[in-house]
């Protein structure tokens, strides 16, 4: 902890009778009265508190960050030590290295204040109201531990009505671990997530990776087909060319044959897209002739792994 010291001694044996001096308390351990080695972990806290006091007193500050209409007096060395962004700014031969005032874009004053408080105190308050702005600013200025803290907060905050927004945020800032956790959440809570229109904003690649999962929680494959068609129709002119690649993730042979004929084949978008006809033909062969004939057909056509039949979805 901050107010304790880690102790070790060299070149001597410790004895139960070898006590710490009363004056030093728990600060050091003495070895034969010759050598003392201690790691003053509390010094980092002393330094941090000292730097924060200097900032509050506006003492020894050497740069002013201008955000909106506010000015923040800071120490270049502190900013450079905490952030790769500011390290590059102040340690390379850039114009900002010599400027007294630096105008920052892409962040508002309130969020910048949170970043600076964190920099000087290691503390911050993350809320549902500020987490997106804090994450975006921390990512921009490369406060990496703050980014991790925001990602952890978002993971704990996942709900069917916000998971797509969090997924898009993770994708925008290349937070791969958070993105994977959100995708797993959507897969496991698929039917609840579908009830929110935000789901239709999913990018195509994320939608496909979600729909192809064997663990996708659906009660019947018709839900997956309807999801695809709703997604395409949401931005039809833009997404219609993507219909074949997205429809590949629907396991058409698992559909009820009557539903397949009356709903899938009768759908106007399906009928207008010749590129999906091979998928329909394959599903017909499964429905009419059984899996073995369809597998033989797939092998003859060069497709040794028939799409849409890699497994069954979860239904419990």
Automatic annotation (TrEMBL):
The keyword Kinase does not apply. One of its GO terms (biological process) is B cell receptor signaling pathway. Residues 295-316 are annotated as: Disordered. Residues 61-128 form the BTB domain. SUPFAM superfamilies: POZ domain. Signal peptide: none annotated. It comes from the Eukaryota. Keywords: Kelch repeat, Repeat. SMART domains: BACK, BTB. Residues 299-316 have a biased composition (Polar residues). This is BTB domain-containing protein. It comes from Gallus gallus.
């Amino acid at each position: 902890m901050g107010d304790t010291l880690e102790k070790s001694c060299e070149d001597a044996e410790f004895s139960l009778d070898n006590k710490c001096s009363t004056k030093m308390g728990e600060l050091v351990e003495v070895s034969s009265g010759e050598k003392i080695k201690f790691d003053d972990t509390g010094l980092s806290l002393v330094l941090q508190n000292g730097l924060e006091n200097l900032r509050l007193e506006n003492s020894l500050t050497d740069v002013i960050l201008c955000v909106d209409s506010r000015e923040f007096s800071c120490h270049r060395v502190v900013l450079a030590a905490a952030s790769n962004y500011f390290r590059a700014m102040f340690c390379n031969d850039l114009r900002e290295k010599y400027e007294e005032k630096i105008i920052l874009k892409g962040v508002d004053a309130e969020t910048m204040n949170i970043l600076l408080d964190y920099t000087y105190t290691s503390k911050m308050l993350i809320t549902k109201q500020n987490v997106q702005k804090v994450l975006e600013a921390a990512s921009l200025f490369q406060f990496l531990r703050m980014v991790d803290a925001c990602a952890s907060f978002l993971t704990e905050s996942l709900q069917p009505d916000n998971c797509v927004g969090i997924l898009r945020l993770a994708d925008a800032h290349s937070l791969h671990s958070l993105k994977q956790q959100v995708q797993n959440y959507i897969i496991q809570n698929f039917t609840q997530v579908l009830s929110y229109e935000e789901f239709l904003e999913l990018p195509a690649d994320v939608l496909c990776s979600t729909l192809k999962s064997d663990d996708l929680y659906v009660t019947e494959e018709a839900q997956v087909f309807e999801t695809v068609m709703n997604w395409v129709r949401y931005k039809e002119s833009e997404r219609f060319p993507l219909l074949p690649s997205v429809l590949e993730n629907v396991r058409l042979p698992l559909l009820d044959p009557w539903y397949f004929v009356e709903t899938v084949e009768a759908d106007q978008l399906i009928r207008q897209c010749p590129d999906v006809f091979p998928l329909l033909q394959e599903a017909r062969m499964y429905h009419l002739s059984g899996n073995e004939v369809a597998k033989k057909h797939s092998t003859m056509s060069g497709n040794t792994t028939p799409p849409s039949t890699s497994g069954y979805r979860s239904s419990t």
